[in-house]
């Protein structure tokens, strides 16, 4: 409903004001997340989302026939990460430049496809492979603590980072940017990539607020998917041209401030620039951008925080009624149980008002690294909220190890779970 969208819009605008008007260190705000609780949460993920091709299981009797000359010690299923043929590829082009302000990349789709042909074990499953790019660390994804374009500070730093990631990972179909103040809080949720098959860019927002209200907070540019293709290379160049490294930076600030009446600072920013392209160049860019509002592709923490207890109780009640969901199992086969969960969650809904776990909880305005939180919240409110969200997510992982945090504000205490919990 538009009323709820406007309510969130007002909160977002105020929450983001401090974030985007203070001069802060990119090294702090974008890439480094401080605190042991953050590090503990990051170990939750092995989520390169490096979705390797499914390997059909066989019984031991057939295994020997299928692989008669391969010892268990030497056989490795999935991508062969030790194989890089001597054949020439785009990497051998001396003019290749990873920088965002270098000459545009051309024929990227063809170059990437040729590279995949040279690496067949990586080609399998490539269409659903995602690389997450984030400021978080201690995870097997892409961590970087430097500005790849020194003039592109703060929120503008994402564009050169993503371009470099696209070139460094031709095996990935999608690049997934996640701000350092966002946390995945549903470990079972799978991105509905089939929904985005005709699009190259996915982000959270509200169409009415984009095209009718024309608000700079009608979207959130802190979490998005971008397809690894030529369209995206071209789009990133255009988007980045509004940034502080551009001689047109001040002019863009004026243009965006004049267009968006609710924009409360004069500088050109990535989010306003993205809304501008949706409004002014819809046929060229907008038709390939999917504005997601059907689930918490990223959700505002203030509206999510109070739902964790109710969601936990709902899930626990379902487990009480389902011996299968209570069954202990190896962590590696958790995806099979996630499929079973979906049958029970059909009536849960998605997003605001749902009792389904929120996919991503975004702590917009809390500034956990710099400490320059929005004055709407106290520092302790932000700390407690992040702690609660991280332990909510951590419990989903600890369950496979036989433990649980009973208190979502106490990361140091865990309790062992009895057999057949919570029967």
From TrEMBL:
Identification of the protein by name: Glycosyltransferase 7
Q: Which InterPro entries match?
A: Glyco_trans_34, Nucleotide-diphossugar_trans
Key word Nucleus present in the record? no
The record's section on Pfam families has: Glyco_transf_34 (PF05637)
UniProt key word Zinc: no
Give the superkingdom in one word.
Eukaryota
Where mainly found?
Answer: Golgi
Q: Where in the cell is it found?
A: Golgi apparatus membrane
What membrane topology is given?
Single-pass type II membrane protein
Annotated organism of origin: Dorcoceras hygrometricum
Q: Which family does it belong to?
A: Belongs to the glycosyltransferase 34 family.
Q: Which residues cross the membrane?
A: 30-51
Q: Record's Gene Ontology CC terms? A: endosome; Golgi membrane; trans-Golgi network
Which is one GO molecular function term here? Answer: galactosyltransferase activity
* Entry keywords, A to Z: Glycosyltransferase, Golgi apparatus, Membrane, Signal-anchor, Transferase, Transmembrane, Transmembrane helix
